[in-house]
Amino acid sequence: MRLDTDLTVGVVLSGGLDSSLALLHAREMHPDCVAVTVGVPESPDVAYAKRLAADLGVPHEVIALHPRDIRLADVREAIRISELTEYGDIINAVVSVPIFRRLREMGIQVVLTGDGCDELFGGYPMYHEVGPERSRRLFLHKIRNLCRTELQRVDRASMGHGVEARVPFLDLSVVELAMRLPIDLKMRDGQEKWIVRRAFADILPDYIRRRPKNPMSYSSGLHERARLYKPLFARLHRSFGYDLLEPVRRDFDSVLMRCGNDLDRAIADGLARPDYTVLEHTRDLVGAAKWNAAPMVRRLVGPRTR
Question: Does residue 16 fall inside a structural domain?
């Protein structure tokens, strides 16, 4: 159903489990499909995606970015397009916008993404750190909020460039199936999304099936550069008047973690203190600055050839 089109289909490929499955199924119905990956040239995403695309014989477009390529104007544009209100989602939007910009340049109008699989099939540690009843509440909370987090990012970033993004894992039939599955089928032997890996073991390359989950912005190698601008997110968000509807808030996942994955406590804490403190922002900025300065330091103190 998600592949019902006469157009060439693109697939946003990170080389992870979810997007790899989307590519495998897209290739079955659309042999002319194209995979697109963004990341630092030596990043895990680019390496895994290149290997899979080559193994499948799928044309592969790599948007090679270096951390220094992400500038304030790119962050501002990602905020403008996405209208997101959590810091982590904004960072993911900064990484997503170049993908859909390139897809538009390539003339690709329909693209598949792997979004939704983590939420449905136990891709987050919090699902497995509490009992079954609390785990289900967290599961339902994640699903209900996709419209203002991951799905909003994908929808705004894609449609802002005239590209229609489709999310096969969030097909109603798949959602209904996931809601019926017990948590022990989603997490087993320390492996998240166990049932998905097992169900497609016959078609997934072993290196993809065994690859652990990594958040998109991290495994692309671009997260820490976007994080450098994090103290400016709220101000940029306000510059578009978006705060009149909802201000930028702390990442709910981090609030949830601080509250021991207690959903009620996390919701109350998020309402009582919407944003990070000045000290928290300062610590975050120092950490990002250290990461961004590290390559320059290595070049200065590294061995010199005569």
Answer: yes
Residue 212 maps to which CATH number?
A: 3.40.50.620
Number of domains in the chain: 1
Strand 34-39 and strand 164-166: pairing? unpaired
Convert the pLDDT of each residue in 2-47 to its tens digit: 677 888 999 999 999 999 999 999 999 999 999 999 999 999 999 9
> Is residue 185 assigned to a domain?
yes
Instruction: Name the pLDDT band for 252 (thresholds 50, 70, 90).
Output: very high
Q: What is the pTM of this model?
A: 0.91
CB-based contacts of 50: which residues, under 8 Å, 6+ apart?
15, 37, 60, 62
Q: What is the pLDDT of residue 191?
A: 87
Q: Is 199 exposed, middle or buried (0-12, 13-18, 19+ CB in 10 A)?
A: middle
Residue span of the structural domain in which 104 resides: 9-225
**20-to-6, 71, 109, 207 alpha-carbon distances in Å:** 22, 30, 20, 11
Measured torsion, CA atoms of residues 42, 44, 47, 53, in degrees rounded to the nearest 10: -140
